[in-house]
Amino acid sequence: MTLKRSVAILPLLLVALAVIVFAACGDDDDGDATDSPTPGDGTAAPTDTDAPSGSHSQILQDVIDRGSLNCGVNNAVPGFGNLLPDGSFAGFDIDYCKAVAAAVLGDSEAVDYTPLSASARLTAVQTGQVDVLIRNTTWTTGRDADSGLTFATTTFYDGQGMMVRAADGFTSVDDLAAATICSLEGTTTELNLTDRLPDAELVTYDSNDTLQTAFIEERCDGWTSDKSQLAGRRSEFPADSGGPEALVVLGETFSKEPLGPVTIDNDAQWSDIVNWVVIGTIAAEELGVTSSNVAAMAADPPSVSVARLLGVGFGGEAVTDTGLDVDVTFMQDVIAQVGNYGEIYETNVTPIGIVRAGTLNALWTDGGMIYSPPFK
Question: Residue 184: which H helix or E strand, with range?
Answer without folding.
Answer: strand 180-184
